[in-house]
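Regression check, S-adenosylmethionine case 490:
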Amino acid sequence: MALSLVSSSVGIPLRNSISLPLKSRLPSSSFSLHCPHFETCSGCTQENNLQHPLILDEAVAFFKNIGLPTFSFHSCRLWGWRCRAKLAIRGPSKQPLIGLYQEGTHNVVDIPDCKAHHPNINAAVELLKRGIIELNIEPYDEDEGIGELRYVQMAVTTHDTSLPASERYEHGKVQVTLVWNSRSESAPSSDKLNALANFLWRNGGHKRKFPLVHSVWVNFQTSTTNVIFGNRWRHLLGERDFWEHVGRIDVSLAPSSFGQANTQAFDSLLRKVQKQVPFGSSVADLYAGAGVIGLSLAATRKCKSVICVEVNKESKLSFEKTVERLPSNIATNISWHHADMSIEPLSWLVGSDVVIVDPPRKGLDASLIDALRTLASPNFKAKPRKSVGEKLKNEKRPWILRTREASVHIESSTTQEESQLLPQTVIYISCRWESFKEDCTKLLSGKSWHLDNAHGFNFFPGTESIEILAVFKRGPGAGKKKKGKRRRSS
Ligand SMILES: C[S@@+](CC[C@H](N)C(=O)[O-])C[C@H]1O[C@@H](n2cnc3c(N)ncnc32)[C@H](O)[C@@H]1O
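Current build output:
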């Protein structure tokens, strides 16, 4: 049963799709974390009222203050929502610790019963621990730079179409990526790596009624910095392709590509984004990862064109695989470009009427905000977007040439009319409130953009973060509504 609640303190609709008894007033403890690791683990900071993250009141006040009293907040699963986790592995091999760092330290807190994790992440962590103990795998020692296993990334796919839709989430399968402290598979410790992969596959793989392990990958990393992943990825066992179904399309996600942690909340957000994009739009999906947002729009909004721009070249393969599974009747010009958005951002904006930005936690690159403000000024004259071939003709800079080489184009035949389009809508998706606030204020300050609507999503229950979807339209807008002057109804 879907529960519809209204959060009384902020007076905003709060939708919750968790199954709960039919009661309009639930005790507040019904929304508590009940996690044995709260306080020692740095993952969660809010123990009660998970349906109402603390930052929400500030967000509501902020939007109200800039003239938007109708900010909605959507909540999904409050526990077991995290389908992607990167966990550090430390301690002795007979008693390994797998979890997050304690706040402000590099001491790993073991979190076997984490309430945010999809339950099968916890089950896979338990299995991994057994493997480490039985095979005498050495967890990484940061001080000495020695040891074998540094981190594990666990990603759950809930897209097993052989199961009834209602059972797919519960029986999600885990793609396990072991971050191994060696340069490559030819290192002497590779026998132990293979033994561990086989252990995981044998005990968690295909022979179970509901397999726990989807696949096992390795990432080789020897750097002494805090960077989790190195550049070398290898598929070891199980299915190579990892599929999820969000935003009404099947998406492929390699372990090296960015993936959203809260699959179900992301699906709600994508459906909301789709409603904001007119049919037949030309879309630029910036900070695109594997292009999930752009491709879900291509499939559902009959877009003329979708261009995706992303700095991580590893996402290209996942993009290509997702394109292969799009419905065959889509007549959209689709392309994916390996490029840094901070360099020449205007060149990615001209030619699209809808721009999606989904930046990392630090927010938008300053040069992109400048470009968005520049192109919305009345004196701006757009130069038509050049095709990639044209761009390359006179290009001498090796770094630009390299990034263009890594692009993907599907039926790219942009018309002259389309290539001069300028963005009329910017859809900002943000995972960090502080960055969003700053960028929003900068974007609005020139009066060349106004905020049309905004929505919050409970992407990270138990933490201080919420996901924001904000839609900006070109032009100054109608301005702030004056207080105290109500129009009489006729
Ligand atoms: C929050 S993720 C969003 C990914 C994608 N929209 C999705 O939902 O799957 C941010 C993405 O921006 C990429 N990124 C970070 N800095 C960038 C830059 N300067 N230029 C282009 N992409 C960048 C990251 O690699 C990452 O894939």
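Comparison notes: The pocket of S-adenosylmethionine is lined by residues 258, 260, 287-289, 292-293, 309-312, 340-342, 358-360, 365, 431 (CB under 6 Å). Residues 1-24, 397-403, 482-490 have pLDDT under 50 and may be disordered. No diff flagged against the previous build.
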